[in-house]
Amino acid sequence: MNGHLSPWRTEQGRAALRNWMTLLARGEGDIADFARDVVAGRAQPQDLLYSAYLDERTVASLHQAVDDWHALPADQQQAAITAAGETTEAQIAALAAAEVTEPARRTAPPADDRDDPGDGIGPILRRW
């Protein structure tokens, strides 16, 4: 980051992340369940990297996205990297400006059926 503060760690970035999690929490599935835990204060966004929140299909699709990235020609990777700062800033600005209300609360918290071996690595990083 060249000594610069991550745009997600700014006030606007934190607002964007809250809104993003709130929007995701409205959905269904493991990502929505995770987002609901974040919105409720039971998890932090970075927990996704170190905990077994996601089911195997979601993790497999993330691994496929990484493989797809690695399969891109170097010039396409470089173009995406070059545009990443502007793209991220635009996404943060749009999310932070969105008027988002919290999703309806469930009457009971979701069951904790995550299969975490307790190794501190998490399923996303375990592959590598």
TrEMBL record:
Residues 98-110 have a biased composition (Low complexity). It comes from the Bacteria. Residues 98-128 are annotated as: Disordered. This is Uncharacterized protein. It comes from Amycolatopsis thermalba.
